[in-house]
Design a protein that fits this description.
107 residues; mainly alpha; 5 helices
Length: 107
């Protein structure tokens, strides 16, 4: 339920609420890939690149049996996005534009 609440908050542009609910979901299910993946995206959105990278590394260790290929593709996309944001931040003095259409909140 905490994850669903977080996605609902995200969809209503309540990004801090989404993160708070996702943190609670993560406390209850610390190795859940979907929760960890979503936290990476929320931290990116809120401008906390160090936390996003930390949770990205954690997400790389999460496994969902039978879904290795789709998850691998999503993780590559997310890793590329993190690298793109890092490059944009370095080039513009930490000013980054985040496109909400690129978010892929997992339920």
């Amino acid at each position: 339920p905490w994850q669903n609440r977080a996605v609902h908050c995200f969809q209503n542009n309540n990004f801090h609420g989404a993160l708070g609910n996702m943190i609670k979901a993560n406390e209850l299910r610390t190795n859940d890939w979907k929760i960890t993946y979503n936290m990476v995206q929320l931290y990116l959105l809120l401008g906390n690149l160090p936390a996003a990278k930390e949770f990205y590394k954690k997400a790389q260790g999460c496994k969902i049996d039978g879904r290795d290929k789709p998850i691998s593709d999503l993780m590559k996309r997310l890793g590329d996005w993190i690298a793109e944001i890092e490059a944009q931040a370095a080039k513009s003095g930490n000013q980054v534009n985040i496109d909400l259409k690129r978010f892929d909140m997992q339920r």
